[in-house]
Amino acid sequence: MKLLFCLTVLAALIFSCASAQSCTASLNQTRQASWVDSEQFPRSLWTVEIRNTGQQAVTNVLLSIQGSINQIWEVVLVNDSLYRLPDWRLQVGGIPAGQSHVFGFIVNNNSTAAPVSLVSVQCGNVTVPSPSPSASASSVPSPSASASAAPSPSAGASPSSSPRPSPSGGCSLLASQVARSGAGGSWSDNSNRFQIYDITLNNNGASRLTQASLTIAIAADQAIAQFWNLERVDATNTFNIESFLLPAPGGSQSGLGYVLQTPLNSTSDGSSIGAVNFRC
What we know:
Number of helices: 2
Oligomer: single chain
Low-confidence stretches: 3-18, 133-168
Organism: Acanthamoeba castellanii (strain ATCC 30010 / Neff)
CATH architecture of the largest domain: Sandwich
Pfam families: CBM49
Radius of gyration: 21 Å
Helix content: under 10%
Protein name: Carbohydrate binding domain cbm49 protein
Keywords: Signal
InterPro entries: CBM_49, Dd_Spore_Germination_Stalk
């Protein structure tokens, strides 16, 4: 009986160890820009990629972010400085193995030290503490400042929407975008102005979508400086949408977006959603 009990405990420990080893994630942090607001308040814009480096779907993570947050998107505050994945990501089962979730934030300082640390990773019912929970952990890549390292803020752009429906038989996909307004929605440096756009997808058809892509229409002197939850096709402005982000029939999906870069001396203003292609 004692031998059977010991073997059972040993098997449970081996299973737990194997589960922990296959439930891992890494962070890639980049400081996109920094500036001084009203000539006295420092700000920095960061982008963070949470990559599932394990063999199981990461169903949630717990993150710690150092500093006073001015604005944040694509993660949800738990308490104090701790954050988790957004609800829409939890509803689609988390981050599949080998894939990533990207979020961003503006912090009220101009430090170049990586501000985000991974506290724990959850795969199903298994929660694995991070072996290096501090922000200075070696597993967190050093941030890289963008070429526009000293921007000053500009007035937020007013919201706009550019829907492009593309019905085809039992399929339907509507992609719309809104220019983010308020603090952190737009800013500028000595050469360019930047605007964040949030994209929403709506499936108004009766069939489930299996593939989709969209093209962002911009002027020749504009560029897409950053994007999240979109997969760029080569060096074009066409982006594939991961299948797990495609909305179910009658549903919608948010959490996609990009940053539009426009030269200060340009007469170009804004962007729009161009062609939307999809398959059932």
